[in-house]
Amino acid sequence: MQPEPRRAVLVLEDGSVFEGTAFGAAADAIGEVVFSTGMTGYQEILSDPSFRGQIVVLTYPLVGNYGINPEDVESRELQLNALIVHELCREPSNWRSNRSLDKHLRAAEIPAVSGVDTRALTKHIRQAGALMGAISCERGPAELLARLKLNPNYSAIDFVKVVSCAEPYVWEESRGKRHRVALVDFGVKYNLLRVLSQAGCEVTVHPCDSSAKDILATQPEGVVLSPGPGNPALLDYAIESTRALIHAKPTLGVCLGHQLIGLALGASTYKLKFGHRGANHPVLEEATGVVRVTSQNHGFALDRAGLAEAGATVSHRNLNDGTVEGLRHRELPLLSIQFHPEASPGPNDSLNIVRQFVELLEAA
Amino acid sequence: MSDGMKVLIIGSGPIVIGQAAEFDYAGTQACRSLREEGITTVLVNSNPATIMTDPDVADVVYLEPLTVSFLEKIIQRERPDGLLPTLGGQTGLNLALELAEHGVLERYGVKLLGTSLDTIRKAEDRELFKRLLLEMGEPVPDSLSVENVDDAARFVERCGLPIIIRPAFTLGGTGGGVVRTQAQLSTMVQAGLDASPIHQVLVEKYLQGWKELEYEVMRDAGDTCITICNMENIDPMGVHTGDSIVVAPSQTLTDKEHQMLRSSALRIIRALGIEGGCNVQFALDPASFNYYVIEVNPRVSRSSALASKATGYPIARVAAKIAIGKRLHEIPNAVTKETTAAFEPALDYCVVKIPRWPFDKFPGGDRSIGTQMKATGEVMAIDRRFEAALQKAVRSLEIGGRSLLWREPGWDLPKMIGQSNDLRLWAIFAALRDGMALEEVHQLSGIDPWFLRAFQRLVQAEEAISAGGSLLEAKQLGFPDAVIGELTGKSAESVRSERERLGIRPVYKMVDTCAAEFEARTPYFYSTYDHENEALPTTGPAAVVLGSGPIRIGQGIEFDYCSVHSAWALSEAGCASIMVNSNPETVSTDFDSSQRLYFEPLDDESVLDILANEEPATRQAELGAQHSVQVVCQFGGQTAINLAEAVERAHYRIAGSQTTAIDLAEDREKFGQLLRELSIPQPPGATATTVQRALDVAASVGYPVLVRPSYVLGGRAMEIIYNDTQLRQYLTLAIAVSPSRPVLVDQYVEGTEVEVDLICDGTEVLIPGIMEHIERAGVHSGDSMAAFPPLHLTADHVARIVDFSTRMALGLGIRGLLNIQYVVRGEEVLVIEANPRSSRTVPFLSKVTEVPMVRLATLVSLGRTLAGLGCGTGLLPPPPFAAIKAPVFSMSKLLGVDAYLGPEMKSTGEVMGIDWTVQGAIAKAFKAAGVDLPERGAVLASIADRDKDAALDTLARLDRMGYRLFATSGTARFLAAHGIAVEAVRRIGEGSPDVVDAITTGQVQAIINTMQGGGPMKDGFEIRRAAVEARIPCLTSLDTAREFVTSLEGPPLRDLGVAPLTEYTRRHLGTGHDREGQAVMGGGGGH
Ligand SMILES: Nc1ncnc2c1ncn2[C@@H]1O[C@H](COP(=O)(O)OP(=O)(O)O)[C@@H](O)[C@H]1O
Ligand SMILES: Nc1ncnc2c1ncn2[C@@H]1O[C@H](COP(=O)(O)OP(=O)(O)O)[C@@H](O)[C@H]1O
Ligand SMILES: [Mg+2]
Ligand SMILES: [Mg+2]
């Protein structure tokens, strides 16, 4: 028997209210409300550290169909603050599935809401921009709105410190691989570690606030600056270490790592209206004219202005809105991309970036 | 670069099973797309019912047979720079290959655009394709290409059974099948070899219970590759994708599984070097990451049409631009207008496709569904929940209002679920209702539990609804009002009123390709029971065009042609056109064919909901009747006309002929009364509601009689009856077919059938032309060859036809189109029926007369007059050319179906032949329809006694031309007695070799066979089926046979010329008429 359905409400900071049915944990949540347009991959999304601090709306309306399996895990825990879907599937079907989405969220104490007109909500976010929101089963809209007013804004919080590892470690399956690589964990997804390992890298993962000196002391051949959540401009410590690292070793920056490279070179970042989250973002590689469909998850972007002065050229461009999707540097051996070559979820069309990074290591 | 270039596009020819309206959609988009780039398009297609063959779609249109020699003539004349081979289905692709192989392309310097010849070969030849995949390391099931039965047997020794047989270069799985026992092996392999034009089949391990998935991918010359859509077949491997219930996007795949297949599809399109669209089919193990590549189609396909409509991404349009060298990111996104075509659509809804099978027409046919496609068409439905999309798709099927509740007492459920067939979905629901365990249904059907659980939820919801559960929840699950009514003992109308009272009404959401991430301007909507409504009422004058639903026998692509033209005419008249249709294969469901598209079922509920959305009751009251949205019911075939009553009952305005006119034409009693008042004769007959009354009517008019239930299109259940016994037998059947509707009994008049389509504005009538059928009345008009202008009518006949037609149109109160069928016997002209709507012949007639009939009818429906539109009235003068329309059948796909022609329509499509002489036009029509006889061939005759005298002349002429004649014993004796050299063959049961052997061994290349009156005879049936299997013409009407022989006597086909359609039509119009023609073309109001 299913438990009695509990009504839940989502209140946005502009006062709009969306109603639905609660599932997952019986808890309240506050976070930045963002939407993701991927049609598969909810399990990976749950454990993607870049969703820290956010309430994620899935635009695909049927969620939970293939359940949860023990393998498609992207970090040590579930990361997002809450999940909002149109329809929850309670009876999943897939050979690897060993529990339902509902159970999984309950176990991780993450609240969720189903039965929401997610398309209306998505349109609202598209028009108003990403907004702070609160969900609850107990509290009414007025009370939630009051709470929202007291809560610090998403963009003012450093989530990287929360999601990064506490101690350095070596990614197990990569042990003994040819190239020794240091990865700074701003909120890495395991799949980046997997694809680096498959490309022949032994990856040592360092906490986000490690100093460049400590990292370089391990004598890596190259450095990877990982993706991660939130506003890069808040991360002075990371910008500083990045500056030193890119001048010392061949570097691959991905997503937040890419933004940090830009900031370290002297460029600036800005908040996108509602971000890029999904598996269908077209990115043009300027050098070849090839367009690749990429997996993306970011709310901030590098400002094109100032890049030239910083010695950087834009190597990749988003075809939808023209935003900067990748950088190369006049002198430094670096690869910097805004999208996720490790996908998971999303298309595996950009693994060439990882291969190029290995080539950089081999050339060095 | 491409500016000023001339490109030849080959269409896909007649509609047949496996190749339906999707290629009209593709070709039309391609022509428009290329013209946008400044390219001159030359289009060749033999199918006059298509939109692509309209003068305003392509620059130059040829309606000529799709054969190498005719295409060579066209190429010689037009000298195109390039040929686009990938938009005309398998027909177009095969022809392009043949043209290349015959050196035609080289000879005239025609470049193949987009995908190269080499690629086409690699993708189409199963052996080459397999080798390529193995080189790439892509998994393919164990298989072997064989050219004889022995090699197949050796494969089975090695790999075991079951195996599947798949012939090279065929469509819709023709000739394929699953071999489960050793006994089936040799016959099935042989059948496959025969079906393949290159005599090659692939024998392959049968993947029982694996999931079947399709990926639609595109690639440009710069190597950018994208996936438009993936689709999951609910029916597992073994059921042809065209016959599967399909969902998009996939529902049971994790991201890892999806990306694995997506990456494989992209690797394959890259390795093949395709430039354009491509469809890749996969089998996926439901319990591991193992997958196999099943096949690729290196072209636009049925699946890509579905993917286009499911996502809003115009695949054919983009593929055409890629073919001329454009890169994906240089092509603007037609949906958002701001982004480009280089992206992958994100769906925020679920799409369900259900095939539409022809077994309502052929209840005796083999209903099993396997690797060979049998559906004639399909429906698609969109909703935010799978259950709702499924139920909406079922509503769209138009199978006599049958919902998922439908079941028949005699069903053997385990058997029906175990071996797929057209009723399996209903059988599963029945079984679940009866308490069959879900696991058992899964074991039997192989269908993924995810789908079965959804079915089970619906069954549980039925119980909840019966118990008075929530109406809103029922609607969210997609239960139609009618079903809720059935479950709660109410009428659909009262459920509707209750909904209205509670404010439960659907909202409409947009198909925008991007899940609302960007602002989109596509006016493409679907209904759902959710919160926000995105389809605000259209402002200004608007009219809803009701489309024609799935392609089926009796209601084909012609009605889509009419719907689209009506939408165009409305826009031109300053009236916003709002299209409603459920068929993803069509041009009408392109979001730019109208100002707004509702992808919805065509039933009372959905049409009234749409009307309520377009014109909320409040606004109706405010604006009054003057401004209310109008509904155009006369272009979507019987589907649309049947909706008129509900529209009127709800007080919406019908444009054109009102329900009174419709009723008057369709109600036999009232129609008969009107004809009597007008003194227009009809074959004597009457309506009967009891068996006794029917027998009395038959006695008074005399046998043979023609009987049928009223209100059906395509002549369903119609038969010629010769005596009381047959009549009694028929009546029990027919009453079962249509219980609430009476049966009509008419004298069967054996005369010449004549057809007229006209436009009436209430005071004046324009008759663009009269068509005379080659086959005598008794062969359904849809299955007859038709000649324009008429061949044998006297001036007196014509005068009478014009007089009757005119008075009938005025008497009925027609505003718009009227189709009338007559039978002419001696001096008499008798009315068979009148259809107060567009008809199958409207596109044909519009093309050959250059009268834009649908446009005029639409404008007249809006209140314009023929005079005001600058048109002439009365009958237009006949042209100096001849055009012949010929039917095309899909019998080879339909096992167990008898191929004889009768009053029951059986053809799936049509072609036309046009030439300066009648003989030339007939020869072209036969050629285009695939009715062919090699020089010095042999013909088998098996003629019923009462036809023998009439057949003599035709057979004697064949003999004189040097054809060898074979005949069954009676016919052979008859011919011999008349001094004709003939070889007798044994009847079935007289020992072998018998008549069927003569056919299967290839001794004869054509058959002339007429039936003994009184239902199909076993022998004849076997002969006709054998002919179908052997793919040789089987003519069952002596009229067709006579004309065929005449065409053989005429000049050889190679002497016939080709000309663009307008060259034929313009010449006769001359200057005077031309001016009038222009007035017609350019006289649209409102701007
Ligand atoms: N090895 C196989 N095992 C089981 N079913 C198969 C196998 N190969 C093909 N099929 C079924 O046969 C259908 C038709 O085969 P396909 O190669 O796609 O031919 P077509 O050219 O007619 O589309 C497929 O859709 C699939 O359901
Ligand atoms: N009284 C009749 N005598 C001879 N043939 C008839 C008669 N009535 C109908 N037919 C034949 O049957 C066919 C189908 O009949 P019709 O009334 O046109 O039905 P439908 O609605 O299916 O088009 C006609 O095309 C004609 O060939
Ligand atoms: Mg196929
Ligand atoms: Mg008729």
Account of the 3D structure:
The complex is a heterodimer of chains A (364) and B (1087). Chain A has helices at 42-46, 101-107, 118-128, 141-150, 160-163, 190-198, 212-217, 236-248, 256-264, 352-363, and strands spanning 6-12, 17-24, 29-36, 54-58, 62-63, 82-84, 87-88, 111-114, 131-136, 169-170, 179-185, 201-207, 222-225, 251-254, 269-285, 291-302, 312-318, 324-329, 334-337. With 364 residues, chain A is α/β, with parallel strands linked by helices. Chain A is globular. Chain A starts with 5 loop residues before the first strand and ends with a helix. The relative contact order of chain A is 0.13. With 1087 residues, chain B is an alpha/beta fold. Chain B contains 38 helices and 40 strands. The interface between A and B is large, with 54 and 53 residues.
Keyword list:
heterodimer, A: alpha/beta, 10-stranded mixed beta sheet, B: 1087 residues, alpha/beta, 8-stranded mixed beta sheet, 37% helix, binds adenosine-5'-diphosphate
Short description:
Chain A has 364 residues and is of the alpha/beta class. Chain A is built from 10 helices and 19 strands.
Any chance you could write out the topology, listing elements then pairs?
The complex is a heterodimer of chains A (364) and B (1087).
Chain A: E1 6-12, E2 17-24, E3 29-36, H1 42-46, E4 54-58, E5 62-63, E6 82-84, E7 87-88, H2 101-107, E8 111-114, H3 118-128, E9 131-136, H4 141-150, H5 160-163, E10 169-170, E11 179-185, H6 190-198, E12 201-207, H7 212-217, E13 222-225, H8 236-248, E14 251-254, H9 256-264, E15 269-285, E16 291-302, E17 312-318, E18 324-329, E19 334-337, H10 352-363
Helix pairs in contact in A: 8-9
Chain B: E1 6-10, H1 22-36, E2 40-44, E3 60-62, H2 68-78, E4 82-84, H3 89-101, H4 104-107, E5 111-112, H5 117-124, H6 126-136, E6 143-146, H7 149-159, E7 163-167, E8 177-179, H8 185-195, E9 201-205, E10 211-219, E11 225-233, E12 246-248, H9 255-272, E13 276-284, E14 291-297, H10 302-311, H11 315-323, E15 350-356, E16 377-383, H12 386-396, H13 413-418, H14 424-433, H15 438-445, H16 449-466, H17 471-476, H18 481-488, H19 492-502, E17 507-510, E18 524-528, E19 542-546, H20 558-572, E20 576-581, E21 596-599, H21 604-614, H22 617-623, E22 630-632, H23 637-641, H24 644-649, E23 653-655, H25 659-666, H26 668-678, E24 685-688, H27 691-701, E25 705-709, E26 719-721, H28 724-737, E27 743-747, E28 752-760, E29 765-776, E30 786-788, H29 795-812, E31 816-825, E32 828-835, H30 842-849, H31 853-861, E33 874-875, E34 882-888, E35 909-915, H32 918-928, E36 938-942, H33 948-960, E37 964-968, H34 969-977, E38 983-985, H35 995-1000, E39 1006-1009, H36 1018-1029, E40 1034-1035, H37 1038-1049, H38 1061-1082
Parallel strand pairs in B: 1-2, 1-4, 2-3, 4-5, 18-21, 19-20, 19-22, 20-21, 22-23, 29-33, 36-37, 36-39, 37-38, 39-40
Antiparallel strand pairs in B: 6-9, 7-8, 7-9, 10-11, 10-13, 11-12, 12-15, 13-14, 15-16, 17-18, 24-27, 25-26, 25-27, 28-29, 28-31, 29-30, 30-34, 31-32, 34-35
Helix pairs in contact in B: 1-11, 5-6, 7-8, 14-16, 15-16, 18-19, 20-31, 25-26, 27-28, 32-37, 33-37
The complex binds adenosine-5'-diphosphate (2 copies) and magnesium ion (2 copies).
